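We modelled the chain as a single entity of 877 amino acids. Its sequence is:
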Amino acid sequence: MSNRQLRKIHGGKDGLSTLASSLLLEEEEIEDASSIRNVNGNRKKKSAVNMFDLLHEGEDSDRESVEEVPSYDESEEDTPHIVQTGTKPKQKSKKKKKQNVQPDEDGEDLDDEFLVNETPLNGHGLPVCKPSPVKNVLSLEQKNLNSDNELKKIFGSRVVVSAQKKKARGRAYVKSTWLINAKDNWSQIRKTGLSMSLDHTKDGCFYFKYEHNKEYRQIQYDFWDAVSSLNPANIVALVNMYPYHIDSLIQLSDICRMSEDPQMATELIERALYILESAFHPSFNLASGNCRLEYKQQENRALFLAIFKHLVSIGLRGCYRTALEFCKLLYTLDLDSDPLAVILMMDFYAIKAGEYLWFIDFFRAFESKKNLSQLPNMAFGIALAHFYNSKTDPKSLALADDFLKQALLMFPGVLVPLLDKCSIQANSRVIKHEYFSPATPFSHSPSLNNLIQLYVGRSFHLWKDAELLPWLERNANNCLNEVDRQPSIAQDFEEKRKKRYQGTPRNIYRHILLSDIKDATATLPQELAEAGAVMSFDPLPPVESVSSYTRPSRGTNNVTAASQLEGGLISSFFRSLLPGFNPQEVVNNQPAVQRQPGRPPRANVELQEEDEIAAEGAGANLQQSVATLVAAMRDLLSNIQLPDLPFNDSNDDEEDHSDLFETSFLIAEMFKSLVVSALLCFSIVATAELVNGGRTNVDVYYESLCPDSRNFLVNQLAPQWKTLSTFVNLRLIPFGKSSFSRSSSGGWSFNCQHGPAECNGNILHACGIKYSKDSTQALSFTSCLMRAPTSGAQCAELAGMDFTPIDVCHKSVEGQNLVQVHGMETLSLQPTLTFVPWVVYDKVFDDSKQWNSLSNVRSVACTHSGFSAPACLSNGL
């Protein structure tokens, strides 16, 4: 049956019937294609003869008599289609496709009409969808959703296919899917409790939603309780019991990622995607381009998050083309709101995949609707795309220059951080010019700063290409020439930035949290952590969130596992002995200090006072918990009753009764001794816990001009300090591989690895650390100096410090004495310092922690603390 006949038959039906009819031909082609594929969809078999095909001979002959059969032509095989399944159809299917691409009376492709529904759904006779470049730009290809296909191009098909043969040996047929192929170690999909239904239609698009049955909802309740417990073991237990619960798989994936097990984290996300796709509605077609899921529906968010995490994972494996295809899929699921801000990563994967023309077309299609050029990543990305495209089309070079110049003028704060991230020294004019390197730091709005740091942190690899540097330098100088010629230009762009970037949308915050790019996460506002809403299974839920069911309310008398953790080790021990023990119980008419887990200090409290309050709060909680436990143990001991002995005047039993009484008395005394001993042991532990406050000591031995030290302080420690400061005591020791000796003037002379300038910088760092009021201020000052070694006054001002005593210290023997003390400590390290920076946790050097800290200091610190810090738990759960 032809497409024209299908339209006539289904022209007056409702929206769902129209969708079903529009997908009929594609389902037939997929079924035909699946019959010639094996489990993995790679090998082509000889198709078996189907006797039922004889029933369709009359229909085929009728069609051939009416429609003209096109002649065989090589050019027709290359005709592009909007939907490609990535499979090679049989000859019969190919013949049908050739007929479908013949133009009708209006000169339009029938395949285009097949995807574009002309049936009016609004009752006014208007088409619900119109052909547009947007649809062509965002059309999906199934073959590009499979990372194995891209790996074949990288490593060769022979290597990948041979590995697949080993995996598929002895394996039964599994359902063909678009997103993920099932693995051998996965059990077969049974009743998962997930389903999908059509919710409504709007503007020619079909909006679906996931649904949870009664059993799945109960598992969801258990999952919420497990998350509230802040205990990863509860999540693991839940996944073992219910291996098809989506939120548990996503949550456990993040736990594995923080525990440095990326392979398991990736497999958990893949399993979640496979389960979600298995629950698709029969009419939910990824290739149609008009099937939607609303992110505000709580049950739908798992698919968005799983796709996002999956595309990031395959992008890290170098499958950039596959990641780009998943970006397109994720963008089309909720095109209007883009809840995960996929637009912020589309340029990166397009450039890395070499899809320059596609990105140019995408930018043209959406610039007028979305104002893409107002995003730093898009402004610089379109310039890069035109530059690389100029290799085949010389006309694109002029466009590349124009786009890059506009990007530099609009976002001058990108250039210097981008070059620093690439370890490239900018030329003297860029460094000294006020436009790109102002004397005071850029006064960007927080929203623009978020976007800049996100772009620099993600895309700096793109700019390490050697052929880009002369082009970037030339356009940067052209911008400075224009600014010098017309100074009003700088003011005009400054006004535009102030007007346009006044607030950060929630989806951008959500994107930054999920991307976990250190430079960007450091710019997140304090209120995000205070809100307590950052959970990896549902980060920053929409304000207008909709759910089919809600979590049952719990009484105030119930004590959550999170609150039970307040008492630390002691409360955990005695809670195992006394299930009714409550560490928040009133003791001596003074309730225990209440503190929300993971809640950071208030912004209006001075940092030094915050540390004191935190220490006092921890001590108060601990002391009150101990007092409560001692009172509970006292009640337990006083309630011990000896067994009543039956009285008998018989002299024969008197001796036996006496022995029994003595035995009971000894047992009671032994029990009391054991309890007292346990209390004594745990009081010692309590004292140690009270003294340390449960915080981790981190000592960083570094040099002021060492590139590795600079990278660690600027790109690792400083961006993560907002989280680390909640449970880390930091000490900075500037000396490194230097040496010292007595000078003739009575001070000290130093010999440094990077020359006299580094010796001078070490002294300045040491003086700044001495006159800082806390570790936060010291790190702010030193990390600024690492960026600009000679800007001591500006860095002190940026850190909120008075530079006068620092300068006096720097120019006197006082600074030399400070560095000499640092040198004595550094030279006495065991084992001896062999690399800079040298990172030590709790005064014990560990080689693996040293090297892992250079790439992910937060993960190492959290792992070292046993994830006991609320900041680690709140970020991981």
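As a brief sanity check on the tokenised model: The longest strand covers residues 194-202. The mean pLDDT is 74.
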